[in-house]
Please model this.
Amino acid sequence: RAIMNALPQTNMMPFLFQDNRIHTSKYNILTFLPVNLFEQFQRVANAYFLFLLILQLIPEISSLNWFTTIVPLVLVITITAVKDATDDYFRHKSDNQVNNRHSEVLINSKLQKEKWMNVKVGDIIKLENNQFVAADLLLLSSSEPHGLCYIETAELDGETNLKVRHALPVTSELGEDISRLASFDGIVVCEAPNNKLDKFMGVLSWKDSKHSLSNQKIILRGCILRNTSWCFGMVIFAGPDTKLMQNSGKTKFKRTNIDRLMNTLVLWIFGFLGCLGIILAIGNSIWEKEVGGQFRTFLFWHEGEKNSVSSGFLAFWSYVIILNTVIPISLYVSVEVIRLGHSYFINWDQKMYYSGKATPAEARTTTLNEELGQIEYIFSDKTGTLTQNIMSFKKCSINGRIYGEVQDDMGHKKEIVKEEEPLGFSVKSQAESTFHFFDHNLMEAINLGDPKVHEFLRLLALCHTVMSEENSAGQLIYQVQSPDEGALVTAARNFGFIFKSRTPETITIEELGTLVTYQLLAFLDFNNVRKRMSVIVRNPEGQIKLYSKGADTILFEKLHPSNQDLLSSTSDHLNEFAGEGLRTLVVAYRDLDDKYFTVWQKMLEDANTAIDEKEERISVLYEEIERDMMLLGATAVEDKLQEGVIETVTSLSLANIKIWVLTGDKQETAVNISYACNVMTDDMDDVFVIAGSTVVEVREELRKARENLFGQRRSSSTGDVVCKKKQQLELGSIEEETTTGDYALVINGHSLAHALESDVKNDLLELACMCKTVVCCRVTPLQKAQVVELVKKHRNAVTLAIGDGANDVSMIKSAHIGVGISGQEGMQAVLASDYSFAQFKYLQRLLLVHGRWSYFRMCKFLCYFFYKNFAFTFVHFWFGFFCGFSAQTVYDQWFITLFNIVYTSLPVLAMGIFDQDVNDKNSIDYPRLYEPGQLNLLFNKRRFFICVAHGIYTSLVLFVIPYGAFYNTAGEDGQHIADYQTFAVTMATSLVIVVSVQVALDTSYWTVINHVFIWGSITVYFSILFTMHSNGIFGIFPDQFPFVGNAQYSLGQKCIWLVILLTTVASVIPVIVFRVLNMDLYPTLSDQLRRWQKAQRRARPTSCRRPQTRRSSSRRSGYAFAHQEGYGELITSGKNMRAQNPPPTSGLEKTLHNNASWICTMSSFSQVKTMKV
Amino acid sequence: MELIPEQNLSRLPENSALKQQMLPAHKLKFSITTVLSIYIATGVFCIAVGTILLFSAKNIREIEINYTNICANCAEMRENALNFDKECTCSIPFHLQEKMKGDVYMYYKLYGFYQNVQQYSLSRSNRQLLSKDIWDVQDCAPFKVSHNDTPIVPCGAIANSMFNDTIILSYILNSSIHIRVPMLKNGLAWWTDKYVKFRNPNAINLSNEFAGSAKPPFWRKPVYELDSDDPGNNGFLNEDFIVWMRTAAFPTFKKLYRRLYRVQYFIEGLPVGNYSFNISYNFPVTRFQGEKSVVLSTLIWSGGSSLFLGLTYMMTGLLTLLASAVIWIIYLMKKKNTSMSLQESMQDLPCRKAEVDNAVSEPKVSAVSQ
Model:
């Protein structure tokens, strides 16, 4: 068997095939160390510390011991490396899980279980029903007649309806015959691996003939085989070459805004450091010249005869070393630790644990947490994320009466329905156990024999494209192409109108126990323009009837004038259904005259055989017969939303987060769901639909929409029209209203492709950003990513993408934060995501509680950290003026080494991990508390400068007060205490106490841990101080610990304590003044909230009220078919029928021909469709 | 609802206060009353401490005599390094107008002497001074060894630049009787310095022990002859030496030189009268444009504090009180508006509950209305 897969472009050169193994991990054991170190030293700060370390090894300028830098550096790098390694380990693990899935592969003429990763190009794989496809396959044969198979592509494009794939007639003959399959030796020449999901080009050469291969012959990785008990396929693309993997963008190293800001700030600090160094170096030169020179000769300091300039140069580097602590190396590691803590809180959150699937939330990336508090845009997938992808028949309106409304306890009602089912013996056995209908009025109506109700249900049982099948247990199984239809037919079945079977000419149903066979005369297929489908049947009594179901807008125009009253009431009902987010269909029938129909049928046959304008003629004929219909009623099917979606969406949009829905599904479905889950609302001012098929059209539509928008804005005279992002946190500003203006934009994939072109891009972006909601439908996975990239790049906003399927992977990867819905069958989305949980509703808690807290804590932490280190380091600058700029440190070297990592790290970490300004309940109840994060208010450059100024002030106080006090002083026993060592100890002790008091003031949520850490740190400081100044340790290492006896003596002096006390008071009091004033004059939302709640508690507890606006549904059509055209032909040609009535062998050629034609028409249809939508 | 398998329950996060972030906590609230009371308390406390400090500082009697230029001839002589062997003494008479009660301490005070220059302050050998290894001169650059490569003991710039004036205070009872005021030369250094940080080699004869070493170039006598009268005050244990070796934090500093031995006339301190300092002028401060003085001072409970600390306390206290007044005023001014605007602003905070209830219940409402 020679199977070759080659590139046409490369002159049939054999292509280097990838194996089917997938990698999402970054490192392996060998590359880990170099790659990881390389990545780490790309961080400005780490590189800087390495540089510092080298500087410190030069004795001339080394003002600090090398251990002051290397200990923290090694610590930091190790911790980060360990963390990266664990992250990657888990990625390896999940990769392995996917790679080790089994599939049946034909090896040595035998079917053997083989791991996915060992599947090679050219292998022949056997797939069974409901299995995931392991690689991109060329379909060879299947269990269904004519080599048909059904696949679900939800993982790839989010569409839930089944698609048909169709093997080549020559290969489908191979059937299940292992030996023949094994000897299959066709050669496939095809396109190079690419990411186009809907295109495939290739040629199969086999048995001296060539067969062209289209997308219809290909099953892609990530699909699920449905309704087909088995099929065989040959692997064309494997692993990274598969369209699925080609569609998933590259794993990017994600950084948060704060990270970037921190990097900028670190650079600024470097600059600042340089300036300080230069000032001090100049000072040093001058001092050397003016004072130092004489001083040196006095000291016989002849060595080197340094001139002042070179001394200044050396001093510069020495000061760079000393002042390096303004960028503490522990900053990064602390940030990581805090993020890790926050990630654990997410993992531990019971309120994000979904018991249904036993899945807790999981923070898969631990470096992005605070960004969760800054989200401005959410890009959500629809299927599986917002919706459960389960359709259920909810309500119907028959002859002007609504059925299916229940206000009572549902479980109770349900049981009654089941028990009281009148024709239980027959119905029950066929009823779907999952079906719930809670209104037994309908049952009564059926029992009373209401002819309209019967006709309604009969229609549902007759007018569809469902195929039926009995499984081994004798149970009736429906093969559904669209879930909507499935829901309707199942509903009819449960009410006693059971669709039994069909042949190309007949449909058999069981009507309340009696089998009735209808003759199928014509099948008027669905397409996107007609938005309806009809069947014409002859019942046993010989009457010809046309049954039709379709969108209300279309069908209402086709009704007989006598239906006026019914139409208006049904229309009301439809509005009501639509308002509840149900998908509606209108059903109608028409009694046909025998003669009239014969004439029509003749014309149809003529049209079918016509050569030119066939389509037009047929559609005119369809129009002709589908008129003067009698309205029966309407159905309402619920596309079940995930739990809590509405609350979540509402609450997130109150938090000023814009939600975009990106789906591969149809426009109607997408819009419908958007309404259902409150992404779009009825009180929106306008919905713009962009559906142009050329660049010019798209641009024109965008322009119009914009004009429209601006026009409306101007007329509403709310003033300023600036696209978001600039409004402050002013309460109740009018501008707020305008910027969150209620507009929605709906754009489909085709227009999007044009709109993403460079010059239209900005128009799109501008419009899209002014809209509250954007719905993109029919988008490919890559387009999803492009949309995300667009917003990310041009709006400079933080984006979050959430999805569940493989088609969301690229979007998840390109957004700042990717969230995967876990617990689904496919793991791809989760594997690519940064956070995963089982239900969309947890997004609310993730953002509003965890995200908000993380951001709040991180900002607080950073402010304090910069403050602390400036206070700590800047003292050296002041001291420089008194020590001849000689790079003398103020503190003991040990203190410098330990200050950041031991003495002051834990309290601030505790604050960064545990602090809460308002509790989780309030965070969720008042979504506007989320806004400071979006506007980046808590930590930005301005805040940074405030912190730095605060630090410098503290350092000044820390220096000046001891200086003044030491100027002319003596100890209690008259001894010398203005010595350097006492000064160092005093400064260090003051510093530790001041920063501890400061962190105590900053901590707004004092848990036990905070207490332990703060008090503990101070205790640890004193114990280490006394230990290092003790006699014993000096006796052992006299050079390392020269401060012997200092702590005991200095800290025994009353005046030292007076100094420490004064320093603390003087550096803390002004800060409290500013804070109190600030809180009084410019209170933040959380301040207000706290105060308000306090006031509330004091007063009577009132619940939060808002004027309730009664929402009336203005929207007309909730119509959405998940249909695909072409099924009518399948049915009438009998192609997808079981072998119970096999087509005559002579007719095989004909059917094959037909079949080829329908595939052609279908593909051309779909082209047209996508162009026109 | 399907039953959750047993092992799945293990995936349920633990319901502990820590993991659910529900740790009981105390919330710091800065209500206006607490802040103001803290402020006033702090302010009052600071003023009180300041007052006490200022009052007690008034009791300090201190005399400082700057003798840099009084002994001008000596100063001039010391300018020239060649004359460093020559003796030069000068006498500075002064009148004590008020009695100095209690313990009196004599300090020398240097101006503009940078004992805190980094290279200087590192130029010493703790191992040598501890007599762990008296030949360890590794860190002592540039005073490690003398010209003939013999190690300097004690080595280093600090030791080399030791203050070496001799100051003798005489009480002039009358023109003929000059009583040398008895001074103690022990108890000058910190206990730990004297008994831990500095040790002599364990030998009866120090000079033997130090044989083969050179004295610092600036010294006149080798280290084992610093005080030949008192063996406990000799060698590395010489208290003047120890005091000098404790480097000062700032270029202006005073170091304890002698303590008054309260006997005879001086049992109560220094009586009023005429005194004179007899100074053997050795330390050449003019060469680095420094100055030196001799200080006589008494102490108070907090040691020899200056006015600075008291004044700063007073100032801080006053500023704190001022700040509390400002806060109080602003609070009063805002109070009228606050109660109103608070209500308004809270109504403005979108309340999710109502909204969501609205959104969720809406379909039902409409359904009922049908």
Q: What stands out?
A: The mean pLDDT of chain A is 79. Chain A touches chain B through 135 residues (CB under 8 Å).
